[in-house]
Amino acid sequence: MKIDTCDIAIQNKIPGCQNIGACDMNGCHKLTVFDWLGDTPLPAGESIFPFVEVRFKNSRKDFFSTNGIKLFTGDTVAVEAKSGHDIGVISATGEIVRLQMKKKKVDYKKDLIFKVYRKATRRDIDKWQQLRLREEKVKHKAREYVIKHDLQMKISDVEYQGDGTKVTFYYTADGRVDFRSLIKDLAREFSTRIEMRQIGFRQEAARLGGVGSCGRELCCASWMSDFKSVSTSAAKHQQLSLNPQKLAGQCGKLKCCLNYELDTYVEALSEFPPHNLHLETEKGNAKWIKSDIFKGHLWYAYTNQQENNNTWHKLTLEQVNEIIEYNSQGQKPASLEEYAAELSLLETKPVENFENVVGQDNINRFDEIKRKKRKKKRRKSSGNKQKNVQNQSNQNKNRRFKNKPRKPHNNKQTKNEK
Fold first, then answer.
1. Distance (Å, rounded) from C-alpha 148 to C-alpha 184?
2. CB-based contacts of 210: which residues, under 8 Å, 6+ apart?
3. Neighbour count for residue 96 (Cβ, 10 Å)
4. What is the DSSP letter of 165?
5. Taking each helix axis from N to C terminus, what angle separates 180-190 and 122-149, rounded to the nearest 10 degrees?
6. Is the pTM of this model over 0.70?
7. pLDDT in tens, 357-406
8. Which of 229, 160, 162 shows the shortest CA–CA distance to 200?
């Protein structure tokens, strides 16, 4: 059962959740920040960093000045906006905010940074929740206007500002869209300021969520907050089929998980020779066909003999490097068949000093144990059934003999009859 860290904080009478539930693993939100500097005491004479990080809807975060207010992680605050105020939740405080601002190249000494007005009151939160409930109806109404104006765009989400004075529509489109007439109709319909913001297809998939081909929740919807570009070279390095239907995710772009193991593959391929390098032998030159990165095997075929083009010779990485070294010295081995035969002898050579003690090499060893147990259960059940049938037949016999009247036994009568 997942426990909300804010509930723990209320029970312990601590203002804010303060990440006491280890928000890096079991947080209230996917955009929560684990404050690994929270337990570090400040040097003597140093004050708390006077800026905080506030998160809003749709993976939006921004930095604000505390304005002298003592704030904690998890507090709901009313912050300054371009027009009016907005409602958000504090995601980080203290020195971790200084590092985040440095990482995102935000200069708090020169740049204009809005401030926190106050901690959100009950009235602010109630109004904010009512606006959040209206967003779904507004989104459907806006989609009707998009169809009416015949615009090539899709409205994926809507966000109300905390005070209700502005509505932001997030949309996706393949190109530029002229939505001036659409904004006029939306402003007339909802009587608020309208802002249109275009997002990418990956951001749309992160907001909608879903289940990927791996059977798990989408990474962008569960834990990812930064999107890195994915190219087809990542699939080539991992020797995957360049089928766009298999490599594309629900957003229609290349899957983000193609970058997860890319560095490992690139490091492993650095030891392999380039694919355009031909091996020179006395029998002829050989070109690269394919390679197995995990086992360190490469396949080559002759180029100058048509009858041998369909024959692939499997070599190890050490053998290929040996042939390349010979070629660099101006020498040529006799043929690739010698190296392939040597490899086949090594693979077919029996392994010494190995005994299968308990059948560990058999993948079905657990199924055999289950079958034996089932047979024993069947025998026991069949034996019990036979005993029950036999006991029941004996009981029926006894009942018959009890109910049947017995004849008097007279020996004299039997003698006279004889």
1. 13
2. 217, 218, 221, 250
3. 21
4. S
5. 140
6. no
7. 555 566 666 666 666 666 666 666 666 666 666 666 666 555 544 454 55
8. 229
Contacts of 367 (CB under 8 A, 6+ apart): none
CA–CA dist 366, 58 (Å, integer): 49
pLDDT value for 145: 94
The position carrying tokens 């004050």 is 47
Selection from 116, 108, 34 nearest residue 75 by Cα:
116
14 phi and psi angles, rounded to 5 deg: -110, 130
**Cα(15)–Cα(90) distance, rounded to whole angstroms?**
12
Cβ neighbours of 284 (radius 10 Å): 16
Average pLDDT over residues 131-140: 93
**Residue-range domains of the chain with CATH:** 5-120 (no CATH), 127-199 (3.30.300), 205-269 (no CATH), 279-348 (no CATH)
| 147/345: higher pLDDT | 147
Task: Answer yes or no: are the C-beta atoms of 90 and 173 closer than 8 Å.
Answer: no
Question: 164: which 2 tokens?
Answer: 């209700």
Residue with token string 């899709």 = 154
The answer, yes or no, to whether residue 148 has pLDDT greater than 90, is yes
- Residue spans of beta strands (DSSP E) within 183-324: 193-198, 279-280, 285-292, 297-302, 313-316
